[in-house]
Amino acid sequence: MATLKEPTIDEEFAALLPALTDEEREGLRVLLIEQGWLGTIKVWKGIVLDGRHRLDICKKYGIHYKTEEVKLPDRDAAKAWIIRHARGQRNLTPDQQSYLRGQQLLLEKKPEGRPSKQLPQNEGVTAERLAEEHQVSRATIERDAMFACDVNLIFDKAGPKAKQDVLSGGLELTKKDVAAIAQLPPAKLKKAIEGGKDAVKKAVAPAKAKPEVDYPVSAKFLNWLGSLSAFHTSLRTQHKTIAALLKTKGWQKSETTYAAELLDAVTHSLTTLNKEMQEHVKHNGK
């Protein structure tokens, strides 16, 4: 039964699955032109769940198509439906398979209102079931879920193309690389992915430690004096502010206790250092 409203494509839903290659799309185009529409296009609230490539070609070439509404409670259920029905339909890269397994775990056991990377306490039950379903270990499923979180973060920061580039395998990224680039600022992340695998590897490479310069003792001492002076100035500046805050009684006991212990430690270190400095002046000052 055809719906009155024209189906729409949701960017997040579409990005769950890899786009067709040029060869795959051409094969589908030829098949649709020769045979007409191939099965109903599944939609949820007018949003395409399955058949977006068929829909695009049908609309472009004026081929008649039909839609079928799928009853689902919410967006997470819709995304889980897409993943379940996509398995086995395409040749997927290992990273794409890993992402879909992980995303399935996140969707099926994500408590309402909790960030997706915080898995619930009872997620082990679902992880065991999905491990059996996909014929992998539970540990693999749980690692897949963490990988899916990183890929989703890349999608949020840099868009669907960046996500597809990461999952395609062309960038030759390890899961550790993906976790690292997911933490980059959006602009830097997008630029790295657009630059290809060398740019991505460079972006996630640990910074080389600068060789320590062996400064003369006098220079080191003067540098330390500068740091000590800055610390003293900061302490004097903040003293009145902290004292005023303490009078508000808005601090937790644990916080004030820790602050007191920290000040005791600083006082002890400064007292010990002062004694050593006084001894040095006494014996070498003349």
UniProtKB/TrEMBL annotation:
Residues 110-131 are annotated as: Disordered. This is ParB/Sulfiredoxin domain-containing protein. It comes from marine sediment metagenome. The lineage of its organism: unclassified sequences, metagenomes, ecological metagenomes.
